[in-house]
Amino acid sequence: MKRLISELKLHPHQYLIPPMSEEDYNNLKEDIRRNGILQPIDITYNNVILDGHHRVKAAKELGIKEVEVRIPELLYIDEDEYLISVALNRRHLTEGQKAVLANEYMKRLSKKRKSEAGKKAINARWHPDKEYDEITLISSNKDEVDRSRKLAAERLKVSERKIMYVHEIEEAEENKEKKVIYEKLRTGELQLHEARIIAQLPEDKREIVLEKKLETKKDIRSIVREINNAEKNQNVKPIPEGKFSIIYADPPWEYEFSNSNMRDIENHYPTLELEKIKVIKIPADDNAMLFLWTPAPKLEEALEVMKAWGFYYRTNIVWVKDKIGTGYYSRGKHELLLIGIKGEGIGTPLPENRPESVILAERTEHSKKPDIFYEIIEKMYPKHSKIELFARNKRDGWEAWGNEIQDVMRGGSSE
């Protein structure tokens, strides 16, 4: 069966199907020029295209007047489901694009199910005084969305979890005139994990990160890290002048994370590359002590930093946390406070002021160390000058340097 191309009409929902890349479309057009259209165009009885929009477009541009068509029997599915399912099975789409299609089908399915329920309600005269589309169903809207998502996942063979992710991305832009992140996911310019990360950012950062991602094609986490670091480091003041006997430091170690890990450390504080930590000019006296925090996976790097800062390792204190963390080989529940000396050091503490090597203390906000370690150091060396590097707060009796210092003074020993 054939139809004139001039008789064929675009489906009103064909915009749901992601466009081909320019390269793929040119390859398709060249194949049609050489071999013609080998697969019939699927249409409705009214000559509306169900499958083959790109082939019809290419045929028009090549001057082809007539094409082979067929009218599929839609016994158990509607036109939208057919439109989407064919695209899912035939096109080389990203996982994000597939999930967008499933999300669009889920929304139409939910609307259709509500309409059908509304019609039944009216026919049964449950609410004769209300308009049909204002019927309030017994089940909640969330329940209906959950059921529709499950049905969409089953029918289109797309992960229900991925459909939920796409729905969350769309909701993040619900008050926007243009859903830019959602559209870039639909066209394949963003992967699903990239769109999720951008959608979870504060609104004032989304556009910046998106533009940089599309421009540079760099890893999305590297982009977020760079922007966070630039923003948080721009107001950092110089390290206080002078020489200090005690250096207490908690460097922002840089981690390597997989794309699927959403607990990105840069969401909590800006990290620094190892080499940038090593070249920091430490305001240490010729004879000084260093108390250096490191998580277990960064022990080797921490020893490099200690050496680069002019100290050599002597011992450590272990902080055992009350909550277990994450890890690739073992789930971390402790951190190490390395102790090193420069020059001749400043002597050992009095026996009664020496702490135990294992301290049990509560873990609170991300990366924050317990206050008890200030107290331990103050007890070990009560009369020596002290500075904290990469500080969050300025402690009474200490100098402090870092991009998170708040204008508060917390208790401490007076010297």
Chart the SSEs and their pairings.
Blueprint: E1 2-4, H1 22-35, E2 41-43, E3 49-51, H2 53-61, E4 66-70, H3 79-90, H4 95-123, H5 141-156, H6 160-172, H7 180-186, H8 192-199, H9 203-216, H10 220-233, E5 244-249, H11 274-278, E6 284-295, H12 299-308, E7 312-321, E8 334-342, E9 358-361, H13 372-380, E10 386-389, E11 393-395, E12 399-401, E13 406-410
Parallel strand pairs: 2-4, 5-6, 5-10, 7-9, 10-12, 11-13
Antiparallel strand pairs: 1-4, 2-3, 6-8, 7-8
Question: Can you give me a brief rundown of this structure?
Answer:
The protein has 415 residues and is an alpha/beta fold.
Describe the structure in your own words.
The chain is an alpha/beta fold and 415 residues long. The protein folds into three domains: 2-90, Conserved hypothetical protein from pyrococcus furiosus pfu- 392566-001, ParB domain (Alpha-Beta Complex), CATH 3.90.1530.10; 95-217, no CATH class; 244-410, Vaccinia Virus protein VP39 (Rossmann fold, 3-Layer(aba) Sandwich). It contains 13 helices and 13 strands. It has helices spanning 22-35, 53-61, 79-90, 95-123, 141-156, 160-172, 180-186, 192-199, 203-216, 220-233, 274-278, 299-308, 372-380; strands at residues 2-4, 41-43, 49-51, 66-70, 244-249, 284-295, 312-321, 334-342, 358-361, 386-389, 393-395, 399-401, 406-410. Helix 4 crosses helix 6 and helix 6 runs parallel beside helix 8 (192-199). The protein is elongated, with a radius of gyration of 31 Å. 27% of the residues are buried.
Keywords:
415 residues; alpha/beta; Conserved hypothetical protein from pyrococcus furiosus pfu- 392566-001, ParB domain; Rossmann fold; 4-stranded mixed β-sheet; 13 helices; 13 strands; disordered C terminus
